[in-house]
Specification:
single chain, alpha+beta, Thiol Ester Dehydrase, Chain A, 5-stranded antiparallel beta sheet, 5 strands, 23% helix, globular, fatty acyl-CoA hydrolase activity, HotDog_dom_sf, 4-hydroxybenzoyl-CoA_TE, hydrolase
Length: 157
C-alpha cells in the first residue's frame, strides 16, 4: 500500500491525457479554510461528465446508455483552497465490457505537486432497463474512452 501511495503522490500532469480547469469558489472552503472533502467528488464527477459530453457524445437526458458510479475513492496529499484554480486531470485505467475505471488527479494551477488522486468506476447501463447491456457499452463511447486509456498503469488504487 505504501508503494501505491508513493506512486500516486508522484503523479504529474503529463500522466493524464485530459485536463480541465475549475476555479474554486468561496463556498468550497470549509471551516478549516481548505476545500471540503465532498467538493473533490463533485469535481471528479464534473471532469468525467465533461469528457463524456464533449468527447464521447453523451447527452445526459437522452443517450441510450449512461454511466452509474458504483465505486469511488480518494487519496488526499495536500490541501487546496479558494481562490485557487484547480486543474482536474483525467485518464482511464481500465475498460471492461460495460465498466470504466477512471483515475482523476487534482492539481493546483501554478503548483507542481499533485493535491489528490481519486478513482471512480462507472458501469454503463441502458436507459430503458437501468441494467448493463449484454453487448456492453456502445462502440462510439468505448472508442472515445480508449483515447484516454493509459496502458501502463503505474499502480492499482
Amino acid at each position: 500500500m505504501a508503494a501505491d501511495l508513493r506512486a500516486l503522490k508522484s503523479r504529474a500532469r503529463s500522466d493524464y491525457p485530459f485536463i480541465l480547469e475549475f476555479r474554486t469558489r468561496w463556498s468550497d472552503n470549509d471551516m478549516y479554510q481548505h476545500m471540503n472533502n465532498s467538493i473533490y467528488n463533485f469535481l471528479y464527477d464534473s471532469v468525467i461528465n465533461t469528457y463524456l459530453i464533449e468527447h464521447c457524445g453523451l447527452v445526459p437526458s437522452k443517450s441510450p446508455q449512461y454511466g452509474m458510479v458504483v465505486h469511488s475513492h480518494n487519496d488526499y496529499f495536500a490541501s487546496i483552497a479558494f481562490p485557487a484554480v484547480a486543474e482536474l486531470a483525467l485518464r482511464v485505467n481500465r475498460i471492461g465490457s460495460s465498466s470504466v475505471t477512471y483515475e482523476i488527479a487534482l492539481f493546483e494551477k501554478g503548483v507542481e505537486g499533485v493535491r489528490s488522486v481519486g478513482e471512480f468506476i462507472q458501469v454503463f447501463v441502458d436507459r430503458e432497463t437501468g441494467k448493463p447491456n449484454a453487448r456492453g457499452m456502445e462502440l462510439g463511447l468505448r472508442a472515445a474512452l480508449e483515447r484516454i486509456l493509459v496502458q501502463a498503469v503505474f499502480s492499482k488504487l
